[in-house]
UniProtKB/TrEMBL annotation, chain A:
Organism, scientific name: Mycena sanguinolenta
Protein name in UniProt: PCI domain-containing protein
Major localization listed first in the record, in broad terms: cytoplasm
InterPro entries reported for this sequence: PCI_dom, Rpn7/CSN1, Rpn7_N, WH_DNA-bd_sf
Cellular localisation: Cytoplasm; Nucleus
GO cellular component: COP9 signalosome; cytoplasm
TrEMBL record, chain B:
Subcellular location: Cytoplasm; Nucleus
Identification of the protein by name: COP9 signalosome complex subunit 3
PCI domain span: 187-349
Similarity-based family: Belongs to the CSN3 family.
Length: 487, 416
């Protein structure tokens, strides 16, 4: 049991990443592994390193060493197997042979044995505790027992068991504050596990609990009466700060689930309205780094939001501005985009594509987001023109004329640009529509369609009234009917 | 009237009293005369109808073809409608007679007359509509069916003719085939669609065949398939999904290589399902649709580029294709001497008369719907059902208002 589950999750994560292409890291695509991983602690660091190992073979040996170091600080020796298998897969894929994993870093077997033993001991201790609490029927203690067991299983990487204990603790929650605590633990667990589809459920539950909790807190304050007005104010402020802190975590979970489900516009809005980094408490580093928020938010926003929204939401947003400071190139990206300097935008995107592809949450969406940004850029660029030479566009985007033509044609065919290409003279013309004539055409077509549909429906009605419906012939085998329904 | 009815009585009497008891298939009368020659085709329609239909359906009772022709031209509709099943028998008999004489095309004229004169107007379906279409198809005279097919079926009356669901399916299926033969694609599509969407608890095999043909016709006339109306039986499209037709639709029109490969491989199936002609036509037209798509993307394009995209080797062929498309009005374009094609799309033009016409027909349609609605809300079934759902508290005035309102709302939704 101890070994089975982590192996399963390990396999699934490698399966996900195997689809992604190997990412190059060189002078054109800089990526500083040490400074990147320094932002994270604990399990997410290992998870991220595994992701890096399996997507980038140039960094794999270095990442492997770092991962093994990190594992020694954790309580889950089974992680080593995941790291090892990811490393072996990637070394099988890459053309240049990589140094064998065993030579790079060895797992300290004594440490592993000790940790296993310690884990075992702690587990039995916690389980015995829980049993006594259950016998005593003290709700609060049972809840804490479950919570501690959940925390324990999480730290050793047994997510399903951890989730089971967390959800069980809910039955013993007495105040909404406890429910909230439980929800946050589950959210943390789910994010770590990258199980995004379940996030909204718990965000929703936590929201309700949060409302109830702050209402209760406010009520309690009312009870103090007007005798002490000053402390009341202070306290209320404290409550709302507390609330905001939790709210930020919830928003972050929502944003991540939106991103994971490909709903980039919603994700952009949620990322951009996140609270300041200090609200996240220990989530910062344990799950996410401030720079990540900046990158996720900006990429989603560039891909989906209109320019005016970009300006107000990113550049004039002081809270998000702090995140942007973490990754200076992101600000460059936004500024280049807003000044319609699309060549720089695309260059920056290309330059940092490795950074994006090596991010554990962003990796599956990089290609799509980049495509969306590029398409948006082309559409935006063409908007003010009635006609434009393609070589001018190629200059503005840094592509060859053929590339531009290909891009433009695909955008016209998808309906994003209303225009036509003069392929001989390499000019793109905006389409001019005679709206009046088009309206007439549409109206007349609609009239004809409706009339013929009416006629057909009326005939159908008459047939039904006369009971001239298709009936199963006599002896029609019901199994055939099932077959027809079934296939 | 008097002498004629007398003579009918007399003949009837003679028929029933003579030894010959082959019912309603009388042999010559006592006087040696053929009853058909004694009776007046017009005044004694019913009698003649009985005798003629009986004789036509037995083997050794000859009927003069000329008599049938005259009868179909001159019978009295009021009398004929008293014996609808006999009229159906007559129609079948005419087809048999033609088969016996090995002269199918003879049957076209009498059946056409019968069909034109028997129902109150052509919008009524009868049980011998499809017999006529079948004869038209066998004799390869599809154009003869056009006057009938140009009036869509809108009325069903079981009193007029002993209809079964098959009559409806067959008529619309055959109608679609006839129109497809005549390359009247839009109409053919409509006929096939009616057949496919005929109401029923289970899909009929004929409906599936109609759906296959419908898809092919759509590919030919539109270059793509339209979704079926919601009320079509779901099983039909599900069955079609597993067939080669879906492969064909998916590959159409861009993937010419795949289309030709499919045609080669499945030639046997297509031809055994009698769809080979339509499939070949559809595949032949595939370049047109690819080319048409180009017009919305490009203003000018070289012939060579077009040839590459469309998948045709020689530029001359492309030139011919473009010219024919310009002629048929599918696209508007100019080919310059240097081989550059310039596309343009003139905005659609409408004359005042056209708009007026559309408005008139819309008004007529809404009047029709209104009258239907009133008729419906008067009907016994509707009222009893409405009463049941509106349960006990029946207060005439407010309830009636409610119906009026709800029906008005229904009208609106039909237009929206």
């Amino acid at each position: 049991m101890d070994v089975d589950i982590p192996e399963e999750t390990g396999q699934s994560s490698t399966r996900q990443t195997r689809k992604a292409q190997l990412v190059p890291v060189d002078d054109l695509h800089p990526f500083d592994l040490d400074s990147y991983i320094a932002n994270y602690t604990g399990r997410t660091a290992v998870d991220r390193l595994i992701h890096i190992i399996s997507t980038c073979h140039q960094l794999a040996p270095e990442a492997f060493q770092l991962a093994v170091q990190q594992i020694h600080q954790s309580r889950d020796p089974s992680l080593y197997q995941q790291v090892m298998s990811a490393y072996e897969t990637v070394s099988g894929l890459s053309e240049t042979p990589l140094p064998s994993g065993m030579d790079l870093a060895q797992l300290d077997t004594r440490w592993a044995d000790e940790t296993m033993a310690k884990n075992q001991a702690e587990r039995s201790k916690l389980e015995v505790e829980l049993k006594t609490y259950s016998n005593n029927m003290i709700k609060e203690s049972i809840r804490m027992g479950h919570r501690d067991l959940g925390d324990f299983y999480r730290s050793v990487g047994e997510y399903p068991t951890a989730l089971k204990h967390y959800t069980k603790s809910r039955e013993f929650c007495t105040t909404s504050q406890h429910v909230l605590e439980m929800c946050l633990s589950v959210l943390e667990l789910l994010i770590e596990q990258r199980n995004f589809p379940h996030l909204p459920t718990y965000v929703f539950k936590a929201d309700a609990a949060l409302d109830a909790a702050s209402a209760a807190a406010a009520n309690a304050k009312e009870g103090d009466g007007p005798a002490a007005p000053t402390p009341l104010l202070n306290k209320r402020k404290a409550v709302s700060e507390d609330r905001e802190r939790v709210q930020s975590k919830l928003d972050f979970a929502t944003a991540l689930s939106n991103l994971a489900s490909g709903n980039y516009q919603k994700a952009a809005y949620t990322f951009l309205k996140l609270g300041p980094a200090k609200d996240f408490g220990d989530w910062m580093g344990k799950l996410i780094a401030p720079g990540d928020i900046a990158i996720y938010g900006v990429l989603c926003a560039l891909a989906t939001l209109p320019r005016s929204a970009l300006k107000t939401q990113i550049l004039e947003n002081s809270v998000f501005g702090v995140y942007v400071e973490q990754e200076p190139y992101v600000r460059e990206l936004v500024e280049a985009y807003l000044s319609s300097n699309f060549k720089t935008v695309l260059e920056l995107l290309n330059r940092y594509s490795s950074r994006h592809a090596l991010d554990i949450y962003l990796a599956p969406h990089v290609t799509e987001l980049t495509n969306m940004i590029r398409n948006w850029a082309v559409v935006l660029y063409f908007q003010p023109f009635a006609s434009i030479k393609l070589d001018r566009m190629s200059g503005a985007f840094g592509w060859t004329v053929d590339q531009v033509e290909e891009q433009v044609v695909s955008l016209i065919q998808s309906g994003a640009i209303h225009g036509r290409v003069d392929s001989q003279n390499k000019i793109l013309y905006a389409k001019q529509t005679d709206h009046r004539a088009e309206l007439f055409a549409r109206a007349i077509k609609a009239a004809r369609d409706i009339q013929s549909t009416n006629r057909k429906v009326l005939l159908r009605m008459r047939l039904q009234q006369a009971d001239l419906t298709v009936k199963a012939p006599k002896g029609y085998n019901s199994s055939i009917a099932d077959l027809l329904q079934g296939d | 009237m008097a002498p004629d009815s007398l003579s009918l009585d007399r003949i009837l009497n003679e028929i029933t009293t003579t030894n010959n008891h082959r019912r309603s298939c009388p042999s010559p009368l006592a006087s040696g005369q053929d009853p058909l020659s004694v009776l007046d085709m017009r005044q004694n329609t019913l009698g003649v109808l009985y005798i003629m239909s009986a004789r036509l359906n037995t083997t050794n009772a000859p009927v003069a073809p000329q008599a049938v022709v005259t009868f179909c031209q001159s019978f009295l509709t009021e009398q004929a409608r008293l014996a609808p099943e006999r009229v159906t028998m007559l129609a079948r008999g005419i087809m048999r007679l033609a088969q016996q004489h090995n002269n199918m095309s003879w049957a076209v004229a009498p059946l056409y007359n019968l069909l034109r004169r028997y129902p109150p107007d052509l919008s009524y379906l009868t049980s011998f509509h499809h017999i006529f279409l079948q004869v038209c198809l066998i004799t390869n005279q599809p154009a003869a069916a056009l006057p009938i097919l140009s009036v869509p079926i809108a009325n069903i009356s079981t009193a007029l003719s002993d209809l079964s669901y098959n009559d409806n399916l067959m008529y619309h299926y055959l109608g679609g085939v006839v129109l497809a033969v005549l390359k009247k694609w839009a109409e053919a599509e409509e006929y096939f669609e009616i057949c496919v969407t005929a109401p029923g608890a289970v899909p009929a095999a004929l409906q599936l065949e109609a759906l296959k043909k419908l898809r092919l016709v759509q590919l030919i006339s539109r270059g793509e398939v339209l979704p079926l109306p919601k009320y079509a039986h779901a099983a039909l499209s599900r069955i079609l999904k597993n067939s080669i037709y879906t492969d064909l639709i998916n590959a159409y029109p861009q993937n010419t290589e795949r289309l030709h490969a499919l045609l080669e491989k499945e030639k046997q199936t297509f031809s055994s399902e009698r769809n080979l002609g339509l499939v070949t036509q559809a595949i032949d037209r595939a370049p047109r649709w690819t080319l048409k798509k180009l017009t919305s993307t490009y203003v000018t394009l070289g012939l060579g580029d077009i040839a590459r995209v469309v998948g045709i080797q020689s530029e001359d062929e492309v030139r011919a294709l473009i010219l024919s498309m310009i002629e048929t009005g599918d696209i508007s374009a100019q080919i310059s001497a240097s081989g550059t094609v310039t596309f343009s799309d003139p905005p659609p033009q409408f004359t005042k008369e056209e708009v007026d016409h559309v408005l008139h027909s819309a008004q007529a349609q809404s009047a029709l719907l209104e009258s239907l609605d009133l008729e419906m809300s008067r009907s016994k079934e509707f009222i009893s059902k409405a009463l049941k759902t509106q349960d006990s508290s029946w207060a005439p005035n407010p309830e009636e208002e409610l119906y009026a309102m709800s029906s008005a709302w229904n009208d609106d939704s039909m237009y929206s």
